[in-house]
Amino acid sequence: MITRAILSVWDKTGLDELALGLADLGVELIASGGTSARLAELGLAHTRVDDVTGFPELLGGRVKTLHPRIHAGILARRDLDDDRDALTEHGIEPIDLVCVNLYPFDEVAWRKDTREEEAVEMIDVGGPTLLRAAAKNFTHVAPVCSPTQYGPVLAELRKQGTLSASTRRKLAAATFAYTAAYEASIAAWFADREAFPARFVVALEKRLDLPYGENPHQRAAYYSEAEAARHLLSRVEQRSGRELSFNNLNDLWAARSLLEELSLPACVIVKHANPCGCALAGSIEDAYAKALACDPVSAYGGVVALNRTVEAELARQLAGQFVEVLIAPDYTEEALAILGAKPSSRILASGEHRLAPAGERDYRRVLGGFLVQDADLEMDERDGMEVVTGAHPCEDSWGDLLLAWRVARHVASNAIVIAKGLATIGIGGGQTSRVDAVRIALDKARAHGHDPTGAALASDAFFPFADGVELALDAGVTAIVQPGGSKRDDEVARAVAEAGAAMVFTGRRHFKH
User: Fold this and answer.
1) Looking at residue 196, what is its pLDDT?
2) Considering Cα of 20, then 25, then 28, then 31, what sign does the dihedral take?
3) pLDDT attached to residue 412
4) What is d(CA 440, CA 428) in angstroms, rounded to the nearest whole number?
5) Which residues contact 335 (CB under 8 A, 6 or more apart)?
6) Residue 357: is it exposed, middle or buried by C-beta count within 10 angstroms (0-12/13-18/19+)?
7) What is the pLDDT of residues 238-289, one digit of tens each?
């Protein structure tokens, strides 16, 4: 039975309902500090922690609950005679429920203006100790660490007069995950000056249960890093449509990560995590039309990302296609009415443009572990590139080269992107041979009515032989950008020069696997 509970919470959300509910059930309440003050405001009879311990709060509140009269009451095993006798000998009463949430370390420590001593003061010691003690002794004590648990706990107590073994076990699991995430965030903060510390701890917080995983037979959920101020769905509001799926979110990240590099009115269309259309234009309507024209077959059932408000004209264009997910900064009411008529499309509005902060890491799951690297976030600028042929790109070609190069960073390797008129017209990605990627990009361009004559081509890594560039040159491509670095760079550049075309080296590779 739950007859005695200790409450010590920083976040007072739901505290009133919990405390009143426990009091109504006849549970004796113990409280510390600000929690005690709140119970007094509610007029609830309770015992202060320092009255239980016989010691006042010490060291400015650093020591309150760290005392045998508290922790023995929590850790005592009620089914062991020796433990019960020890409590009786020392006049200690058992504690049956522990409700604690912790100092807001993340909220304070990760702010830019926080001093180190301020962050350190937000490291909770007593709170995690109380929770871990209760969770260890979960067969006798209920650990409660989140306001979301208050309602279900009260409901079960009112119905059954106690908490079931399975409920206590679930509460213990949630508690250890909570304290582990808290410690992980502290560890990450202390290790922030090291790129790859000896022990790397990632704490994740569930944001969504997903209907299924990559395939219908796989279970799935969406988690963000616990301390992340921004994540894929932060400041994203779903305006209409079905719930988001695993593949939707994977494609959404691919689309948003490319879109955030583009400042002019832009549209990115993604299918199976690869761009299949990207364009810049004077208006968002034209950008969408150009991106769709790149590969309308692949765009069917894709994710469309836009960086301008969607109005009725564009909404009508979008409604004429099957779009799995549409994301834009905002929508007019008329546009929403048009798009909402297609309930299968998920319509998202986002107030967040720049997603990936500097220092972001990339994780790749392998058997029994992760590969961890810096995320490939740095954009290559024209000033750092080298023209290695006699012919130089004209200004229009430079625009197409830079767009193709940016898109190529987001296409699965080996990646080839062909652009013309500030729009992609052919993309070949995920190939084991670079010459095959060129061939696919050209075939896609021609299949959808695009003429590669005068187009620009980007390759995410160097051309090991001249065969790939020769295919492109024969098709009419007049400007090529690639990292360089092959033993045959001279041979490749010479083939381009002999065709009267221009070649640019970036000096930086952008594999994406």
Assistant:
1) 79
2) negative
3) 94
4) 5
5) 310, 311, 312, 314, 315
6) exposed
7) 999 899 999 999 999 999 999 999 999 999 999 999 999 999 999 999 999 9
Residue 204: the pLDDT is 84
Contact (CB, 8 A) for 426 and 445: yes
> Is there a contact between 343 and 306 (Cβ–Cβ < 8 Å)?
no
Query: pLDDT class for 229, splitting at 50, 70, 90?
Result: low
Query: Which tokens sit at 69?
Result: 């009269």
CA torsion sign, 468 to 297 to 266 to 255?
Answer: negative
Active site residue 272: yes
Residue with tokens 């894709």: 302
- The yes-or-no answer on residue 342 being catalytic is no
- The three state secondary structure string of 265-303 is CEEEEEECCEEEEEEECCCHHHHHHHHHHHCHHHHCCEE
Query: What is the total residue count of the chain?
Result: 513
Range 4-193 classified under CATH 3.30.70.3090: no
Q: Does the structure show a pLDDT above 60 at 80? A: yes
Domain ranges of the chain: 4-193, 236-350, 385-505
Burial of 330 per CB tally in 10 Å (0-12, 13-18, 19+): middle
User: Contact, 511 vs 413, CB < 8 A?
Assistant: yes
Closest by CA to 276, choosing from 304, 253, 295, is 295
pLDDT band at 357 (very low <50, low <70, confident <90, very high): low
Instruction: With beta carbons less than 8 A apart as the criterion, state whether 417 and 432 touch.
Output: no
Residue 154 has pLDDT above 70, yes or no: yes
CATH topology of domain 236-350: Cytidine Deaminase; domain 2 (3.40.140)
The total of other beta-carbon atoms located within 10 Å of residue 312's CB is 16
Question: What are the tokens at 163?
Answer: 């908490």
Superfamily, domain 385-505: AICAR transformylase, duplication domain (3.40.140.20)
Common-topology check for domains 236-350 and 385-505: yes
Residues 6+ apart with CB under 8 A from 262: 268, 278, 280, 307, 406
Mean pLDDT of the chain: 90
The predicted model gives 370-384 an average pLDDT of 84
Q: Which of 67, 136, 231, 342 is catalytic?
A: 136
- Among the listed residues 140, 272, 342, 448, the single catalytic one is 272
Separate counts of helices (H) and strands (E) for the chain: 19, 21
Q: Tell me, what's the pLDDT at 254?
A: 94
- The set of long-range contacts for 424-427, using a CB threshold of 8 Å and a minimum separation of 24, is 424/275, 424/277, 424/278, 424/279, 424/291, 424/294, 425/294, 425/450, 425/452, 425/455, 426/294, 426/295, 426/450, 426/452, 427/274, 427/275, 427/276, 427/294, 427/295
Of 117-121, 192-196, 314-318, 447-451, least confident by mean pLDDT is 192-196
